[in-house]
Amino acid sequence: MIQLTSGKRLMMINGYTFHRTGVKSKSGVRWQCSGKNRGCNANYCVNEENDACFITLINGSVLVMIDDYSYHKIAGVKYGGGFRWQCSSRKRTKCKAFVILSDNDETLYRVHGYHNHDPPISSSKYGGGFRWRCSSKQKEKCKAFAVVSKEDDAILRVCGQHNHSPPMYNQTPSDTHFINLPNGKVLLMVDGYTFHKGGGHIRCFGGVKWRCSASKKRCNAYVAISDNDEVVIRYSLNHNGHERPVYKVDKTDVKELTLVTNFNGVKISRRQPGRCSFCSSAKNRKTRYNCPRLITMETDRQCLVYRGFTFFFRYTIKTGQRWVCSNFPRCKSYLCVDDKFCVIDSKTKHNHSQKKLYLCPTHLITMSTGRKSLVYGGYTFFLRSIRRSGQRWVCTNFPRCKSYLCVNDWLFILHCRTDHNHAKKKLQMCANGTYVKRKIK
């Protein structure tokens, strides 16, 4: 707006001036171009009666309020010398009403169209309330809602009529909780019966439908739970007479199992000397038979030991790994374990006898000649060569005796041949800590 020296007020839009004619219409007061006498018919209708104000929402959006209706700005769209602001309910109600504001958002040029809906309820950030909509909005398309105060939860306003009957709520059984299976699945247990999520997360009564675990037995029981898994919306516990499932708590100690995983050993026959101090101890006997252990065989192959039998890796499944018996395919026994080597599924009816596993004891000694020797099963071995896979120690009667040991840096046996063709000698410790050999009488 500009004011001439004569006191007359003009409105300037894009460098052109307009004067007020006094003609009123539904869109506002008409302003005619100052060049009307020269044949210019340009004009604007400016709304002067509506009280326009700007409001800022919590998310930072700016709206203009005119007669209780809100408008939002269409970025980059210019119309009639200003920016176009369209009704905020356009997407929901297809309302075509819009207003034109100047570039500096100070002058309202035009209000166009009529609203086809009631004015929305807006509450200020301070002293207002929160809007609660009907729980059946998605299912029944109910538009009823209520405005609740933030301070004392008092109802400020209730708007709209419900287009459906009131929902029915039942008291949830007290024995309701989630359980975790070893394969990673989560089940809902209600009154001793278990429920699982349907494929693709079936929607039911505004939540997720959990079906009875015996649904394959044509049991139609279900439980509808909210998306956050906190509220039971509705349920039907009309089971078809099947028994409640029995679940046992897995008492496997993960820390102890991790310690057992570091066990290394060699698979040898029953007649071979040596004894595993770990497996033979009464303290770990229960762990040895009830918990699978990862060991390294003489061929550098890793195996699982479960109840005295060995299993080798076959392939990966969705819930973990499948290990089959070392006598596969003659023996059909198998183990299904997860990432922590907890047994998920198993078939342990072997058609053969088991072999004992030993952690073969070895220790390094110094002979009276100053030479280092490795003692295993009463026989001595000396270092022959060092390879990438470890060290090779051969019998002290080499080359007449072909026995040897392949050990790693920690003197754990990786591979061995112990069929000596001679008798072993007795080792006698000297005063200086060295050893000498004596024949056994």
Tag the structure with descriptive keywords.
single chain; 441 residues; mainly beta; 6 domains; seven-stranded antiparallel sheet; six-stranded antiparallel sheet; 5 helices; 37 strands; elongated
Layout of helices and strands:
Elements: E1 2-3, E2 9-13, E3 16-25, E4 28-33, E5 43-46, E6 52-56, E7 62-66, E8 69-79, E9 82-87, H1 90-93, E10 98-101, E11 108-112, E12 129-133, H2 137-140, E13 145-149, E14 155-159, E15 176-180, E16 186-190, E17 193-197, E18 203-204, E19 207-212, E20 222-225, E21 232-236, H3 254-261, E22 266-267, H4 277-280, H5 285-290, E23 293-296, E24 302-306, E25 309-317, E26 320-325, E27 334-337, E28 343-347, E29 357-358, E30 363-366, E31 372-376, E32 379-386, E33 391-395, E34 404-407, E35 413-417, E36 426-429, E37 435-438
Antiparallel strand pairs: 1-2, 2-3, 3-4, 4-5, 6-7, 7-8, 8-9, 9-10, 10-11, 12-13, 13-14, 15-16, 16-17, 17-19, 18-19, 19-20, 20-21, 22-29, 23-24, 24-25, 25-26, 26-27, 27-28, 30-31, 31-32, 32-33, 33-34, 34-35, 36-37
